[in-house]
Amino acid sequence: MPSLTVRHESWPLRGSFAISRGSKTTAEVVVAELADGGARGRGECVPYAHYGESVEGVVATIEAMADALAGGLDREGLQEAMPAGGARNALDCALWDLEAKRAGRRAWSNAGLGEPAPLETAYTLSLDTAERMGAAAAENAHRPALKLKLAGEGDLERVGAVRAGAPDARLIVDANEGWTAAEFKRFAPALAELGVAMIEQPLPAGKDEALADLDRPVPVCADEACHGRTSLPALIGRYDMINIKLDKTGGLTEALALRAEAEAAGLGIMVGCMIGTSLSMAPATLVAQGVAVVDLDGPLLLAEDRPEGLVYRGSIVEPPSPRLWG
Question: Where exactly does CATH 3.20.20.120 map onto the chain?
């Protein structure tokens, strides 16, 4: 039976990264590692204060599962034993990795999926002044898709500056719950004129009922409002897409189930990430195959990634090697 170790790691960013709720200069991640004989499985999560998580709390929650894991708790049992969130994500992904290492077979095969192909990821521009975001867009104008962090007042100027700096890029905007319904009504038609392809989480989760009655000239994607499958019924009619993040679903197991159920409900799929290392991104590359929007650029925002990390060629990310995960 596997033995568990848990550790906190801090990874510096290439600079400050800001959204509507604040900024940071490091990625604080928690890694769960399961060892069984010569096999070792790893999973990484990013504790998120907005969801009531802390590094210390997530570490303690994972450590509390040591006896159950040593007693044979598997992925299926884990879904009932722990709530969705970062702690379960780290353990779920570590179990997927351990299963692959034990069997000598890739995780995508164990999941009944086809061999993953390279993905084209969006690249995120941090919230800043219109002038600085426009300059950042110009520096990244070679990238096919840019995601802009927005906040409310001044957002049309920010998007206009980015469009001028990167005239050919596909633009996605993310308000991180920072708009009012009145701002959405005012901004959305103008963003459509600027060629924006998607608006992510414009209104606060739980206070987004107005979206059902507003025109949506640009597709709207639920992020903070979407966690696992139980959140789907409230999203239908308000959103056109959902953003699947493993730290919200509580791992790859629920993420794959959420994708299937959301697609059956007619919702488009985006697969996103918190800012973490390639170990966080690797399981998400399986969920992201063939989806409308991929946002797995976390390692591109770090000063340095894991030595066995994902290979990025511009905005193209290759599937993970077995040395990294799965």
Answer: 119-317
Q: Is 13 in a helix, a strand, or coil?
A: strand
| CA-to-CA separations, 203 to 54, 235, 237, 269, in angstroms, rounded | 24, 12, 15, 19
Mean predicted confidence (pLDDT) in 161-189: 97
Q: From CA 300, how far away is CA 13, in angstroms rounded?
A: 9
Rounded to two decimals, the pTM is 0.96
- Architecture category of domain 119-317 in CATH: Alpha-Beta Barrel (3.20)
Which residue in the list 101, 185, 207, 245 is annotated as catalytic? 245
pLDDT for the residue 226: 97
Which residues of the chain does CATH 3.30.390.10 include? 3-110
Catalytic site residue 185?
A: no
Q: What is the Cα 16 distance to its own chain's centre?
A: 19
Beta-carbon-side half-sphere exposure of residue 109 (alpha carbons within 13 Å): 9
Residue 120, amino acid: E
Among 311, 314, 313, 317, CA closest to 296? 317
Q: Residue 195 carries which side chain, given as an amino acid letter?
A: G
Q: Which two tokens stand for residue 321?
A: 């090697």
- Residue 245 among the catalytic residues: yes
Q: Which of 149, 185, 207, 248 is catalytic?
A: 149
CA 93 to chain centre: 14
Beta-carbon contacts of residue 153 (< 8 Å; ≥ 6 apart) = none
Amino acid type, 64: A
Asked if 115 and 287 count as a contact pair (C-beta separation under 8 A), the reply is no
- Superfamily the domain 3-110 falls into: Enolase-like, N-terminal domain (3.30.390.10)
Which position has the token pair 């007693």? 71
Inform me whether the pLDDT recorded for 237 exceeds 80. yes
